[in-house]
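Async update (no meeting this week)

Hi team, since we skipped the sync, here's where things stand on the single-chain job. The sequence we agreed to prioritize is pasted below, unchanged from the tracker. I ran it this morning and attached the output directly underneath so nobody has to dig for it. Comments welcome in thread, and please keep replies under the output.
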Amino acid sequence: MVTGAGGSIGRELCRQVCSFRPSEIVLLGHGENSIFEIAAELRRLSTSGRSPVNIHAVIADIRDRHRVGHALQTYRPRIVLHAAAHKHVGLMERNVADAVTNNVFGTQTLVDLSLDAGAERFVMISSDKAVNPTSIME
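Output:
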């Protein structure tokens, strides 16, 4: 499972993971268009000559415990690559409540639910979720 699969980091992770030809991949993100686009791209790439990767597109916000829990229990990923985050530090400094609920509480929810679903590995991608920034990224 890749969270934030529709974002720039998540999309690239999905491409990289699919290059290893997993039997399936779960693309989780809250942006309908971005998830649709990366799922379509991966389907095109995965059907080129070899057995296709089974792609599951899930629209969900990592703060939604029920929805994310359902996705994790349904697909039972062995590995969760967590790239979902608000990453524009300057903007998030002006929207602290949303930054905290998404990047902190959403991540904690995802960790807890991944453990409950039996995930073997949880990989936190993008250290800017925990960094004390030295510059504004906008």
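Quick observations from my side:
Residues 96-116 form the longest helix (21 residues).
The chain has a mean pLDDT of 90.
Reply here if anything looks off.
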